[in-house]
Amino acid sequence: xALGTMSAQITDFSNRADPYPLYAALRKSxxxxxxxxxxxxxxxxxxxxxxxxxxxxxxxxxxxxxxGGPAVAEEDTNLPPSFLFHDPPEHDRLRNTTMxxxxxxxxxxxxxxxxxxxxxxxxxxxxxxDGKDExxxxxxxxxxxxxxxxxxxxxxxxxxxxxxxGWADIVASVLDPSQGKEKVQDARRExxxxxxxxxxxxxxxxxxxxLGPLAQETGPxxxxxxxxxxxxxxxxxxxxxxxxxxxxxxATLTLLRHPDILKRFQTEPGLVVPLVEEVLRYExxxxxxxxxxxxxxxxxxxxxxxxxxQVWLLLAxxxxxPKRFEDPDRFDPDREDNQxxxxxxxxxxxxxxxxxxxxxxxxxxxLFRRIKNPRLMADPPPYRANPVLRGPRHLPVAIDGxxx
Amino acid sequence: MxxxxxxxxxxxxxxxxxxAPDVFVLHGGEALLFTSRFDEGLRDQVEQAAxxxxxxxxxxxxxxxxxxxxxxxxx
Lengths: 404, 75
Ligand code: HEM
Ligand code: SF4
Prior knowledge:
Chain B: It comes from Streptomyces triculaminicus. Chain A has helices at residues 5-11, 20-26, 44-51, 90-99, 115-127, 137-142, 144-154, 161-172, 182-204, 211-216, 226-242, 244-257, 259-267, 272-282, 315-318, 353-370, and strands spanning 31-33, 39-41, 56-57, 134-136, 289-294, 298-300, 303-305, 310-313, 375-376, 396-398.
């Protein structure tokens, strides 16, 4: 499928390692119309305002017939769309139901109580690096951590975890506007069938994790159907697999590229808190949202986005907008008032943000305390194909062994 | 040490209540309650909550000045 000129360049793999010059060029005008009729929004205040605008929809069924732009829908007749692809009131019903066992107001301590579990997973992964003088931070650490964590949070049996990896990898490629959709359909079907069986089993034996209590919601008086819970679980699984890995890898890469900050971090582990926020601004794991749809004509920054048009919100570009962030291309963990859009904003603000933050805030100090004298072996490292969920495919780092 | 939530900024994202459940409590899905005085033991939680607030509405003073009000409330 032909993409508009700029969007084609953004998705072009050769720009994956450094898309930021493209964003800088785009920011010359806040809203850019593509040849295919889609619109790219690149500046901070315009992205934020549209994120909070009820005239912008996440529901792909609102796209005008024959509208241009890449098809990135969960176009699938087996399962209903997840709440990411719903507008209110359905979005709120599904999101609020899912929140009940996961966070406040009903379960304010659920995640907090997972801290020790997550720290344990981290220690086990790092212990396994003993004796190595080269590690792949992605394969050995940043990928297995969130995978294990999200499986624990959902309550997926450990022995089933390996089967997920393949499915999740493929299903997450729906967010890649340049990918075909056939393989995705098959993977979604298999994963959907597995999850429906698991929900059935959890209805009788809830076990640990949030799927048990959510399975209870699928009864006659509950607030979601089994199919809705299956697609919600799929969303959580994929979001848990394919995003946090990039936060940890991007943070590691950025620290290794900034030796002064790394040195400071090694003696001042509390720096991780603002540092993670700055990575979310500077190298956001979700680069852009390519699928929102205008429900009516929207006048913004001198442009009218027509009803039915597809709108791309370029979070990574907004995060480098010099009108909002001073010296935006500088990585600065001491930056004040860092209201980045790395987790988006408005009603679709990342559901898993507290989990992702907790994982990264625990993982990075442990990693950099244990690995001795880390050196990047390839800069830039090889990247994943996906331009939306962007991050290194491998991150080879040479080390002088492991501290106790 | 004490904190205050800027009422005009807070949009109820609840990020603070996830990361510092001993300090911030979401009441009925609407109101945010918080303890404005806290001690060293809660410092990490408060730092994490303040950094995570998407609109940077949590304002923290880590000095040891005794504070006046003990409870805060955001509608
Ligand atoms: C660093 C890691 C992460 C980043 C950068 C991130 C980023 C985002 C962004 C930008 C959105 C908005 C998408 C949109 O509206 O189109 C989003 C939504 C979402 N995220 Fe995350 N995410 C991360 C980790 C997670 C994790 C670990 C989970 C699972 C527990 C998760 C679950 C979700 C869900 C369910 C939504 C949909 C929210 C809604 O539609 O209301 N995310 N995330
Ligand atoms: S203080 Fe910030 S994080 Fe807490 S509820 Fe308000 S907006 Fe959300």
